[in-house]
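Hi C.,

You asked whether I'd gotten around to modeling the 155-residue construct. I have! Everything is below, sequence then structure, no commentary in between.
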Amino acid sequence: MTVCPVESRLYDLGQRLPDSAPSRALFLPGKISGNLLFLSGQICEWEGVPRYFGPARDDFDLAEAQEAARICALNLLFSARSLLGSLTRVREVVRVGGYVSAPPGFEGGPMIVDGASQLFVDIWGEAGKHARTAVCVSSLPANALVEIDAVLEIG
């Protein structure tokens, strides 16, 4: 069996894709338009089981919160692989949207979303660098701490 270079890189980073990333509502996991793959938001759950819950607090553990964002990114990659057949079709990460459940005035949202952004850079290098939005919101599905969506260029 041939191992996809992206999944091999994930393994080298001590990460792996989940075996599933089930949807919680009526939407597609992603949609291809031209050479872009628009991926729907994924929360910080592993194979359908939520792992990290909001809202974030001022005394949050940054490493743990970034792990929550990384799980979202792994779920996105699962969806991309399911839609594309292989992650080798991904040319670059174009845009990432990050949403962090937090109370008004919380300023750590962008640092939390860095967990997802860093994974994409670790995998694809320069092609993993992307435009991004990182905002705090009052709540997310399943009381999740983080939700991430992405736009990927494909070939």
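If it helps when you're writing up: The chain has a mean pLDDT of 95.

Thanks,
B.
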